[in-house]
Amino acid sequence: MKRIAIAGVTGFVGRGLAALCEERGIAVTGISRRGDGQVPGVDRWQKTDAMDLSGCDAVINLAGEPIDRRWTAAMKERFRESRVRFTRDIVVALAQCPDDRRPRALVNASAVGIYGDRGDEVLDESAAPGTGFLADLCRDWEAAATEAEAHGARVAVIRIGMVLGRDGPAWKKLSRLFRLGLGGRLSHGRQWMPWIHVDDLRAAFLHAAGDESARGPLNGSAPEPARNSDFTRTLAATVNRPALFPAPAPALRLALGEFASVLLASQRVVPAALEAGGFEFRHPALDGALDDLNKSAT
């Protein structure tokens, strides 16, 4: 690959992905609302409402309004527009490219939320979608990306778990809370939490962009999912603080509304397709991933 277009390149995952491309000698066209930005590794810019993807070997779409907030009807519409409608815009832009300059692949973000709340069931990519708003949203999001196949593009969708990275929102919130000694399990703590180190997620997107065998859904989560209680205990030990303050489910629902269902859902997700395609995780185990982040922050 010589050039990749990245939508959402100004975000937490996108910025590091652009830097990774630069390390590997891949040029990056950044796609943003303004059509410019200060992102190392990006040498060209496109506006979201005037995309020209000609000459790019692949497109990676990371765009999407953050969902970690109380969901209102207006916010749900923004979630949908920033994912489903924008993905369709990318497909239109891809279709408008000359045949000999059209990107050969579209790698689109999705989320493990597509599986819903599944208890102890092991969820590889063959598992059926679940139910609920987020599952429906992810299903429509993936369907929009798949429309690119009609224009000759190979399509892969990466179903992302909780992303752990030093500059990411999840790690910032959790590490701050636990360092203050205010951390604790969520509800009973038995729910499975799919997670992934951001370095592995960025590498997985680049792997999917360049590997011709990467098609359809790919679970973007570490090979060793953790129960919430184990995650809590490991994080507390990593920052050398106790975890004494569990958050009861009713309190979470009162504070966060429908979004609490995401935190309380159990999803025992495994990255079967990525591993079958030869992808190797740098941080497969939770304790090693958290140690890496804690050392990076000190």
Low-pLDDT stretches are none
- CATH fold-level assignment: Rossmann fold
- What multimeric state do the chains show? single chain
User: Strand share of the residues?
Assistant: 15-25%
In total, the number of strands is: 13
Largest sheet: 7 strands, parallel
Name of the CATH homologous superfamily: NAD(P)-binding Rossmann-like Domain
Category by helix and strand content: alpha/beta
- The CATH first-level class comes to Alpha Beta
Number of spatially distinct domains: 1
Instruction: Write down the secondary-structure element order.
Output: EHEEEHEEHEEHEEHEEHHHEHH
Radius of gyration: 19 Å
The level of helicity is: 25-40%
Average pLDDT, rounded to a whole number, is: 95
Alpha-carbon distance between the two ends: 36 Å
Q: Which strand order does the major sheet show?
A: 3-2-1-4-5-7-11
The CATH architecture is 3-Layer(aba) Sandwich
Count helical runs: 10
Shape: globular
General description of the model:
The protein is α/β, with parallel strands linked by helices and 298 residues long. The protein has a single domain, classed as 3-Layer(aba) Sandwich (Rossmann fold), CATH 3.40.50. The protein contains ten helices and 13 strands. The protein has helices spanning 12-23, 73-95, 133-146, 169-179, 198-210, 228-238, 249-256, 260-264, 272-276, 286-297; strands at 3-7, 27-32, 42-47, 58-61, 105-111, 122-123, 154-160, 162-164, 192-193, 195-197, 216-220, 226-227, 268-269. The protein has a seven-stranded parallel beta sheet, sandwiched between helices. Strands 6-13 form a two-stranded parallel sheet. A two-stranded parallel ribbon has the order 8-10. Strand 1 (3-7), helix 1 (12-23) and strand 2 (27-32) form a beta-alpha-beta unit. The longest helix is centred in the first third of the chain and has 23 residues, at 73-95. The radius of gyration is 19 Å and the shape is globular. The two termini are 36 Å apart. The mean pLDDT is 95.
